[in-house]
Write a structure and sequence with these properties.
mainly alpha, 5 helices, DNA-binding, Arc Repressor Mutant, subunit A, single chain, 2 domains
């Protein structure tokens, strides 16, 4: 059984709770590369969610490279591990390059990051 909980009372949408929960389990090593994950319908039934909600979470995880779908074989944790850290590193490098082009110092760059994080 896929041990994930989704709170129907949370301000965070259920698909996002599911996406974050899967990603957290991948990062912790609980879901290793190649692990088969439940079908959309099975997980929707287990979590009392609409199938489209689970499908959206799976699509976003697939777009992030965390999950890969192999047709009739099902969906699996991608063998690439946790590509979100790589994407975050590339985004940070791109940000620093942009800040340098604009001539901003490190303190200003960090202030923009702090403001952006506070706004999220």
């Amino acid at each position: 059984m896929f041990d994930i909980t989704v709170s129907h009372d949370s301000a965070i949408p259920p698909y996002e709770q599911l996406r974050q929960a899967v990603l957290a389990r991948v990062r912790s090593g609980e879901l290793a590369a190649g692990t088969k994950i439940p079908t959309v319908r099975a997980l929707a039934g287990q979590l009392n969610l609409a199938p489209n909600t689970v499908a959206r979470a799976y699509r976003e995880l697939e777009q992030d490279g965390v999950v890969q779908t192999r047709g009739r074989l099902g969906s699996f944790i991608a063998s690439s591990g946790d590509p979100t850290r790589d994407a975050a590193g590339r985004a940070a490098t791109d940000y620093v390059a942009a800040v340098r082009r604009l001539g901003l110092d490190d303190e200003a760059a960090l202030n923009y990051i702090k403001a952006a994080l506070a706004g999220q």
